[in-house]
Fold this protein.
Amino acid sequence: MGLLQAHCPGAAGTNVKTNNIQLIIRLLIPLGAVLLALLIGAVMLLSLGADPVSGYATMFRAAFGSLDGFSETAIKSIPLLLIGVGICIAFRANVINIGGEGQMVVGALLATIIALAFPALPSLVLIPMVLLAGAVGGAFWGAIAGALKAWFNVSEILSTIMLNIVAVQVMNFLLRGPLIDPAEVARGTAIPQTMRLSSNADLPILIEGMRMHLGVVIALGMAVGAYFLLWRTSMGFRLRAVGYNPDASRYAGISVPKNVTAALAFSGAMAGIAGAILVFGSESHRMVTDGSSTGFTGSAGFNGIVVALLAGLHPLWSIPSALLFGGMLVGANALQRAAQVPSALIIALNGLIVVFVVSSEYFKQRMGSAPRVDDGPDPIEEGGNNG
Amino acid sequence: MADSLAVLIIVSTIASGIRLATPFLLASLGEALGQRSGVLNLGVDGVMLLGAFGAYYTVLQTNNPYYGLLVGIGTGLVLGVFYGFITLNLRAEQGVSGIGIYLFGLGMSDLLFQKFVGTPRPILPFMPLHFPVLSDLPIVGEMLFQHSIIVYIAFGLVPVMSFILYKTTYGLNIRAIGENPEAADSLGVSVMATRYSAIIIGNGLAGLAGAALAIELGIFQQNLTNAMGFIAIALVYFGAWTPTGVMLGSFLFGLVQAIVLQCKTFGVIPRSASDLAAMAPAIITILALVVVAKRFKQPAALTKPYVRGG
């Protein structure tokens, strides 16, 4: 709960004056956390023998300095945004979804199976089908953890972690066995990957000559959709009510178990779509495994948590947040080429940003912003809580 | 003859089960200590990775696995102080900040490895100890008395930890703070100091677990642990927060892994099926979590920061 209240940037409450101050503090502190992490990154760059100023400049130029670079950044941001949006939904219901990795994998697998089963369908049918399959797979995997929490009182943190491990083994099994590219078997190389999936399922390129594809639009659409779900539908109201005060919700006749399960299912669906987009928006248009989940997801299931935290657990703020982290990933690759600094630096910095953002709540409380009473609406929405 | 072959296979499977259980055991003992004091640490995997790299690099430089162990512990202790500061002084949300530590460890260990080692080079592993008479015993000797020192450290820690938790004032304080910090505080027990110590020791054990893993394997690579630290956290629940329970869980986990490995080697089951078998421990753990959640209560103050008068 503390997190929920503390990370909502800007709150429209009763007292306008304190709210302006709170808005500023809420916006500044996460940015401060990022800056602090970048500062530590600068020290690390220095000690690795690279010039931090030109290093960061290289990163920025690579990520945002050209249309091509921005296209790469947008592509890298897709899974981060979708995971982040899913984290926002889950957190609003007071559920921590650490299972993004596994949900991405399961969603991608189901989408891949659909594409293998119906390769001849026209794009207009097949693309929505594979995306839906991704959503269903991820939602199913998330709902398992939700049901375990709701009816068996199993911590979702633990069950999602275990489900991540199970998902990876399912992936390894399927890609080494039933789904493996027959050509790999024939050649005897047996790389665990599917054949090149039906080109009817390729996500269309948005702008000629660039890699940016339909996935960007879908991710943005999901962010907006999640915003509407949370603040414009009764379903969303129930999710937030259960997260804010389960006892009162129960008293009001809202089923806590059902909504906890729904929250994890929604969250998982976002991750599943991200997994499907990773497959059908990839350059190889196959699903490949290196035996671990990070090999497929690039740790997006975890990095997306950073995106959501920095965005104050708000789906729309997650968009700039995801672009920032997507840009950092693209920039890190450029930095590796330019200054031989391993791009793993960015994963380490992401970890620090998480730690700093979560720790910054303490300073918010100290800076005199009184704890908020309502789980109120967000800066974009003026009308107030539609509860 | 067939019988003696079967015995041989069973003995070597159990022996390797014990060996494979060791990193899990060390990490989950540490996690259990922290959780008993009311602090959840989801960063175990990251701490293990950094401990593993620290140990690997040290052994690479010094050719002495014992220095590696010390560096592994040291890395964990330092991260423990850091984690204590975040969760105790700044009262950060424990579930999420642990993920931060995990990401930090994942990225940092990879970064250091690529920068300072680059291509994987093997290091000197531990030599198995040789006990007079005991090691030469048939069956039992191979099963129990031909392991490296780290295995005995890990399993030796189980009774030590039980003794500390249940027979000493310090252990009583830890348990009291994990259940009811207000009451313990009112009796003059320092919640802060006790939790700090539990977290630091717990992280030290996680670092040691990473070191044990790297030295046993004799290598380091990106994401060496492959989520072992997360499994260690689940094993704490599996073992219902007792050292003995944690040990049984770790052994079961190690044993299942060993059986899967044996089946792979002997080609008893096809490779693809062994992937399915490899998920058995995770599924067993999920089922165990259901049972544990029903029968046992987690420490009442787990994940709740303590504010005096708050």
